[in-house]
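Slide 14.
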Amino acid sequence: MRAPTSILRTWQVAILVMAGLVLGSVTLAWPFGRDQGNYAYPAWVWLDGGMPYRDVYVFKPPGTVWVHALAQTLVGPSMTALRVFDLGWSIVTALLLANLAGRWFPRPGVSVVAGVAWLFLYDGFDFWNTCQTDGWMTLPALAAIWIMTVDDASPRPRWPAWLAAGVFLGVAACLKYTAVLFVVPLAAVVLRGPRELVRLVVVGLGVGLTLAVAGAWLWVRGAIPGFLDSQLGLVPTYVIDTARSGSLGGTLAVFVDRLTDLPELRYVLVGVVAGVVPVAIGLVRGEARPSLAALALLVAGAASCAVQGKLFRYHYLAMLPGTALFAALGVVSLLSFVRRGQALVLVGIAAVLLATSPYPARWATLGQLVSGTLTLRAHWATKPFRVNKMSVDDNLAAADFIARETAPGDRVFVWGYDPMVNVLARRKTVSRFLYNYPLAVAWGNPAYATELLDALAADPPRLFLVGSQDATPHVTGTNDDSRQLFLKFTALRDFVTARYVPAATVARFDIYRLRTE
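Slide 15: predicted structure.
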């Protein structure tokens, strides 16, 4: 595949940045979901001198904590600050994808349409399913592929570039292990014959170097035992036991069903269908290698989603780069049949997509926020931010109580499924367990209960909160909420009874205060 030396022009960059700001503006009014709170906390602990895995139980590879720490350092620790950071991350991702699209398919419009399509698809997800690692990992993965694409036009080998591509791919793997599947589109870009395998070997060295550095960081900071405990202990069983199907055929059936059933995923399906014919034609005509790379990009993202088994909405984020490229090829191919009024047709397509999307309603809400007729707190108390019976507003109410009743250095422990409260209150917890998921699931380590009780006894928190109405059986494997689990955990209940007195009930949290005598 011969890659042109030019990159995006200034006007193309301007269009993509503007599209990113307009489409992404709706996300700035969103709070954390549970996952965002779960990883914002260990990032805060790390920046404050602690260590993920060692001091806080972390479920995902370390890259998630790195990104949250970077966001907190560059923008700030608030929920809105993370959204601002994610807005910038998404725009950079769109620029990378557009650059790739323009290099692979140097037809007018493909690059810009691909970038805008990615932004439209990504920001079409909601507060719970954005700022997730399945979306974040696509940036370093695309950076690796982009480096190899640029190097494809070089007249001589550039070993440092290949190594850098491997480093970026390694960073993607540190965000999500399934990022290694993006080797497939990378190979489609690089390979012309057996001799080209050496390039992939160098890329592999870059991946290995990144993972070695990450491992050294964990080792030096004494976090290897905690890392292995989660990544080789609870996490694999969680993946297996919460899979939507135990067979490949069943997983594929659910995979397709969700594409047709869930509103934001229908646009993913439309984008893929739009590009099927252009890509198929390219495979048998003069664009075989770039079409193969585009197909491989889509397949890698789909595989990343499917192999996780759970098929949560945010797992489909890995498909968005390939989907956006397919959509761009479909749109540009359609326009090629229109002799007059191409701009009008393009505007019509955009108008239909926007009119059927959640963007108009979200922009209207954003207008209310900007004008002052609606506050963020009131906005976050509305139905879109209530998942099952858990709500952001409940967490904010508990955090407000904690901030009023404790000093900044006081410890606060929350026995619940939602790890956001400590982050919002800016109060650290006790023990590695930010929330009770590791102790709630049937596949947890029995030693965790003793570890938690020992930590609480050694450093009793100033406040002890017990949540309720937070059962998530599809994730935990139990119908019990945190209050029911607390009552069944006799040793923990006795600890609280002996050392604490009831202080208040705030939203869905019962709050106990440490006895003063």
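Speaker note: The chain has two domains: 10-355, 388-514.
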